[in-house]
Amino acid sequence: MFYCPYATITNNSYRATQMNSYIRVFHASPNSPAVDVYANENLIVKDLAYKELSQYLPVPFGNYNIKVYPSGQMTNPVINTNIYIPENTVFNVAAIGVLPNISLYPIQEPNTAQESGKACVRFIHLSPNAPAVDIKLTDGTTVFNNVAYKDITNYVNVPAGTYTFKVTPNGTDNVVLTVPNIKLGPDNYYTIYAVGLVGKSPALEALAVLEPR
């Protein structure tokens, strides 16, 4: 599955005129209902379902109390935590884990220098019951090695093109997930998220997300 969740932000305006910071929320908790997200008691994301990403929302930098409620409710938040959003920063957070033990997990911006004409791709492991995994190409080449739950890999530069990735438990050739036909364009950044549950519902799957730069 492929997402491009920032239709209202152009590549140029996103960086060149960035006077504020931005926050985006990713719902990655597989057994949680759709949620509403409040920052300092203000509703910022409404009815965000599992596997959905919010738009990038402009916010002033500073301290925020973040509360996450089942959609339509305002009592007994499933997440109640404090975060600091630095100035001129893109701040990504994911709701991860399984109820009743879910939490807000920060995901940092890319810091890898991109090679001109190539694509940058990284992998983030957010499947709470999956083991550490390797991510390989169909020819057996390992792209990412020993990625455990909540690990965020560095970006790697790859030639632009269409890829199929295979996910295996670390150190094995047993394919537990195939991620087919991922188109990686030149001079773009991509994140592949592993979400869901191994052997349970909703099942383990991958989401490929184009990141604005």
| CATH topology heading of the largest domain | Immunoglobulin-like
Number of DSSP strand runs? 17
Query: What is the name of the CATH class of the largest domain?
Result: Mainly Beta
In terms of DSSP E residues, the strand content is over 45%
- Reading the helices and strands in chain order gives EHEEEEEEEEEEEEEEEE
How many domains? The number is 2
Explain how this protein is built:
The chain is mostly beta strands and 213 residues long. The chain folds into two domains: 2-107, Immunoglobulin-like; 118-211, Immunoglobulin-like, CATH 2.60.40.2890. Helices cover 3% and strands 52% of the residues. It contains one helix and 17 strands. The protein has one helix at 11-16; strands spanning 2-3, 21-27, 35-39, 42-48, 57-59, 62-70, 79-85, 90-98, 101-107, 118-125, 133-137, 142-147, 156-159, 161-169, 177-184, 189-195, 205-211. The strands form four sheets. A five-stranded mixed β-sheet has the order 1-17-16-10-13, with no helix packed on it. It has a four-stranded mixed β-sheet with strand order 5-2-8-9, with no helix packed on it. It has a four-stranded antiparallel β-sheet with strand order 4-3-6-7, with no helix packed on it. The longest helix is centred in the first third of the chain and has 6 residues, at 11-16. 30% of the residues are buried.
What descriptive keywords fit this protein?
single chain, mainly beta, Immunoglobulin-like, five-stranded mixed sheet, four-stranded mixed sheet, 1 helix, 52% strand, disordered N terminus
